[in-house]
Write a structure and sequence with these properties.
Largest sheet: 6 strands, mixed
Number of strands: 8
Distance between the termini: 37 Å
Strand content: 35-45%
């Protein structure tokens, strides 16, 4: 563990526990689990108002009228887009799957589309 154990006052229960005295023995592990599930397998592309591209976990370049996205890691299985204008997008994933299509606004592309953890009520 990176952090120390955390104590509650004697005789009190920590939130979410069923025994008095201790908690937070697994928080660091949970942070890494969330990163591995929600952050690392995803890449993000943001188009600024001036057309500049900001990326995370990928590289994005314009080749003519096509926005080409190259994931930075083999574990990237989907890309989140936030685009101002409709444009042709191409992505080649390490798994061998490819995406090519018109995209605009905010959307997820790639195998599985939108992450399951975001599909509430759908």
């Amino acid at each position: 563990m990176i952090g120390d154990w955390w104590h509650v006052a004697p005789g009190q229960y920590a939130q979410g526990t069923h025994s008095p005295g201790w908690s937070c023995d697994n928080d660091v592990h949970e942070h890494f689990r969330v990163m591995a599930k929600c952050v690392l397998p995803n890449a993000f592309v943001l188009e600024r108002e001036d057309g500049a591209l900001k990326t995370w976990n990928c590289a994005a370049t314009r080749v003519g009228d096509v926005l080409r996205i190259a994931p930075a890691e083999d574990c990237v299985s989907r890309v989140h887009l936030n685009l101002h204008k409709r444009q042709q997008v191409e992505v080649a994933f390490a798994s061998g799957s490819r995406f090519s299509g018109d995209c605009s606004g905010m959307s997820w592309i790639g195998p599985g589309g939108e992450p399951p953890s975001l599909r509430q009520g759908k």
